[in-house]
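Methods: example folding runs. The two proteins below were folded one after another, and each record is reproduced exactly as written to the output file, sequence line first and structure-token line second.
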Amino acid sequence: MGDYSCLSEQVDCYCVDKIRIGAYTTVSQYSFLCTASHDYLDPGMPLVTAPISIGERAWVTADVFVAPGVSIGEGAVVLARSSVLQDIEPWVVAVGNPAKSIKPRVLCEKRESEYGST
């Protein structure tokens, strides 16, 4: 977990495999980071695992499911109640089930009049 990153309350990290969370990243309440499932095509349904990676400055908002093997790019935002079943590109806003990119995430300059001096 990177510096200045946060897992909010009730986040479930099912970490049978590795979960990497970059710096300045937030995973909001009730999200589920799931690194394992079962191979339903095999009669024995063996456990299969794959790591999850969430890039720096990303935000996984409330109640998002992130599937095994998924990477969420740097600066990406995944909106509430989405299911991330495939990789999300850097610096986009994604939403849905399955989550898909809907627009770029463009940051605005911090304005002293609104936020005070730094």
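Second run, written to the same file directly after the first:
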Amino acid sequence: MVINRKRVFVLGLDSIPPELLFDRWLDQLPNIKKLVSEGLYGDLESTIPAITCPAWSSMMTSANPGRLGLYGFRNRSNYSYDGLSFASSKAIKIDTVWDILSRIGKKVVLIGIPMTYPPQPVNGCMITCFMTPDTKSQYTYPAELKSEVESITNGYILDVDEFRSEKKDYILKKIYDMTEKRFKLTRKFIHSKEWDFFMMVEMGPDRIHHAFWKYFDETHPKHPPGSAFKDAILNYYKYLDKEIGDTLALLDENTMVLIVSDHGSKKMVGGICINEWLIQNGYMKLVEYPKTSTPFNKVMVDWKNTAAWGEGGYYGRIFLNVQGREPHGVIPKHNYENFRNELIRKLEDLRDENGNNINTKAFKPEDIYSECAGIPPDLIVYYGNLDWRSIGSVGSGSIWADENDTGPDDANHSQQGIFILKKNENLGGIRKKEVTLYDVSPTILQHLGVKIPENMEGKAIV
């Protein structure tokens, strides 16, 4: 192994918001506080949509979701009404930072980075992400690495099952078990593998925010005072801080450290049942209205009398039924823009049950992306600027919901994640502004002395 060569270690913490890490709890996190005091840190602007997929892929390619053709975990593969197909590593057609490094002979170690399943060949090793079906799947590259991973971790955990449920003690234990195994593996591989670039992403913060946010946040509409889980998130942050300290202690001074999150988190106020809203506003007609709350893909839509439909999620997507594009399109192509503008006006005037405007933001994909590969949604919607999630199911009779239709969920995503950058010289503990996740890959390449591709959208942070 070459001594004193420059290396980069990236630790991804999915969904960590600056409001908790920097503004609320930093004094209780000694290892992170030390990094912050000696490095650069601040908010990390996420993608629109601010969601795991596409955010990590955009971070690792420095390419916006439109260029990637990734508008969420699920995307339209054609103009039929058959729903959306799940994205995978095969959807990424633009070089990731590890593609670039592998090609020039740099060694990489990759653990848990979202959108890496199925595993692709790299110059080094890869353990795939929470989107992997299970540990019976082939989740490593090379394939024979799997037995080593299972042996080191005594049974690797890809994700926390049932994190949207009321099994709170179970969820908490699984989050800790998963995080412990991932850090244990990371520390082992820091020593045992040759690497120039090492990146690990931990999903635990995302899972604990969704499952436990209401317990500490006294402003949450479902906050239960005095709960035993009041400090669940803070205690997990303290645990993360110790794991981070133990891990970074293994790195030499020539290793640049980057800690990043793909987006932030915030309390979820409620849900907007977008298809109910479309029905009540005359944009959608069903063959038969269901008697109970039913997933949208299970209801019979009268497509010849439907102009638009929506998808659920932490953000909303609306698709229009356009003549000559969809099988039973009803919106004339020449009226497409007028129709979208009408929808935007009405969506941005969305009210809560008390008649207060909730500050919804609706985006046309071509306004926010440099190009739109694949089939983008016709509108991307932040209900209540991400205070509210999108509910796709139909049958409640109401536009508003106080619960996620996929299970209990306390938190939504927010637009600002975090970054902390530490090099061998003291960078002064400056809180740097206007940094985006597109800047992460150029920063990695610059430190390693690799030319930054001209098609990367970001610039090196330092």
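Comment on the second run: The radius of gyration is 22 Å.
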